[in-house]
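User: I'm putting together notes for a lab meeting next week and I want to include a structural view of one of the chains we've been expressing. I don't have a solved structure, so I'd like a prediction I can at least talk through. The sequence is below, exactly as it appears in our construct file.
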Amino acid sequence: MEKNGSITAKNLTFAQWVEIMLSDDFRLLDVSKCFPTDSIAEEFIDRAQQFSVKKVRSLLRRFLINSRTRPIDQNTLEAYHVLDSPGLHKERFFETEFYRRLASENYDAWEGITWVLDLLPTSPKMAIEVIKSYISAHIMLLHDYELIGLEDAMTIVRARFINHQQPRDIFLDLHPREFEILIDALYDKMGYDTTLTPYRNDGGKDVIAISSELGKEEKLLIECKRYEPDVGPDIIRALNGVVSSDKATKGVLVTSSDFTPEARNFAKENGVELINHSNLTRLLNTYFGTNWPSFVDRIILTRKFETSED
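Assistant: Thanks for the context. Below is the predicted structure for the 310-residue chain, given as structure tokens.
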């Protein structure tokens, strides 16, 4: 501890840093708005799954911007100088919402972003998009540690909520048709217009996913394999042939297992996208939240109702 009572964060072990950050003593840290060192950041990423959602939310609360006023800084002084100087182009500054709030009688210039915590754990992708947007709107006004802290907050969200690996048994416990419906629901959530093909005689594809967005038009043919063994190249060759005959943009093969080296080589040479168990769980975490295994049956039943699946 320094003479003035502050604590040098870079001298702490990971466990000490976490303990202080989750207590009221975090205000004593010389660096409390972001990870103090790369080693602490890396250790958190490695251990992210060991932390409860409650603790992660508490840590994120330290890194996110609160609704508040703060001591007058150089930006504030410049703003006041311009606003109080007759004959200058004040409208240029009033076009910025921050300066509108700054000039108000209440001086509530900073609107916080801690409400992003309400998007966790169910919508981690949306939480990251909100933080990115906040940075874009305020990048010229944020202090260095605040900017780094928001970037670190996105790292925390990814490490704890998106990269969390789920047990493969979740998929193996599903009926193959339920697995197909889950993938259909996923691509629907990703913004595609999807069609679930018949369970029998499906023409070599289980889901057709179409994007009509300007500049991003594409037609995906998705084959779903709820397998235990690794998928070999024969299935990918068959899918590639269907993509060619249907004049689709790309083929996607999704499996609950993994792919053999031969399968990966063929897919790479022919532009077929492969999604194994690990990548599939990340996608489901991203679009349904980390707790999706707890309500996977609801996801499937809802999608069956939406698609009139018997």
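A couple of points you could mention at the meeting. The radius of gyration is 25 Å. The chain has two domains: 9-68+110-162, 169-306.

User: Perfect, that's what I needed.
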